[in-house]
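=== RUN LOG ===
request id: a7f3
mode: sequence -> structure
chains: 1
length: 424
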Amino acid sequence: MKPLVLIPQHFGSLVFDRRTSRYLPFDRAATELLSRSLHESVFALVEALPTGEQPQAQAFVSTFYRAGLFDIGGRLCGELLDADPPVDHLLGPLAVHLELIATCNLACTHCFATPLPRRGQLSLSELVPLFAELASMGSFRLGLTGGEVLLRPDLFEILDEAVAAGLHPCVTTNGLRIDERIARAFGERELVWLNVSLEGSTAARNDAIRGEGTFDRVLERLKLLAEHARFTLAFTITADNHQEVEACAELARSVGAHTAVFRPLYPVGAAAQRPELMPSFEDYTQALARLADHAELSEIDPFSPTLRHDRRARTYANRGCGAANLVASVASDGQVSPCSFLGPGFTSGNVRRTSFRTIWDEGHRFQQLRSPGAPGCGGFEGGCRARSQALRGSPFAADPWHDAWRGGGGHLPPLANVERTCGE
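=== RESULT ===
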């Protein structure tokens, strides 16, 4: 596979870089230049432009030549995705969250996937055509969640099929089933990101959420994992642990993690019944401020108000969040929704009966979330719809955190790495 994929979009295009697993957005004029550079030298194309247009085009080419988009001859290092984009939304989500299994070997008190267990799961033979369809839509990031994904005996077959289709899978696990064989299997798969979840820097803090003894058991398994594979420690910021994020970052460093991910707790699933665990927006932003000294280890949840940061390109025009605009979720039984955090009331179809593309384009809830003029949709202007639903009674109401963000001038601490998690 070539390093880049040029994905047509209604505003121009996205370029997916397989080397970094990131998307770069381009307007129509830049897309025309990129498209032609698949077959002609971009240097010659710039020289053929009217004199007045050349300086800007030369600056564009210079920037992205240094970024590795063009080969030494000036041709785009990629291929064009053959697709006709919709007129008002992305050809496909930038990331799909796929629940592989709806059962778990833990019962975390804040689990977003509750209730567990649930019946039904897509088989490998059902997943293979789904993977192909996602690739045809330019939806290359695939977040594999549960339940506990390592309870699926065919997990590595699933990963191999996803990679073969051109997808970039990310696995989130509680780590308890990792042994020598599993650690080696992860290490053999270069395109897999692996998140291992913990809830604090100490056994007391973690085990209060995940169960007695889990902290020490996970750390033992991380010793094995570190010998064979790169992995991330994923922490959920709560009212109880926000004061120890620096210690969590140091823990990640000490156990050999290549980075640490910090996301705020969302009031969904089991956490909806534990309001005392919810951090305040002030708790969250202060935690991020303290993490600034550990920027090389830190990634911030993309569904927070940081998504509205001025440095971020916007690939949709409505006042929504990532749900239905950038991401979609597929439950273990094939039900598709704009975001699993919004609950079963936002299910818009099932891939066992309807193509994912059709649900993405035509699903009622997807269309509703993209339509700012829909009844009752006037209050939401950014942030997280699931938080609005839980705290203000409607996913179309204003997100309290977004209000707090705007009240503070729309600023958050400048961390070096705020872009990539599985979910963006």
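=== NOTES ===
The CA atoms of residues 46 and 52 lie 11 Å apart.
The longest helix spans residues 214-228.
=== END ===
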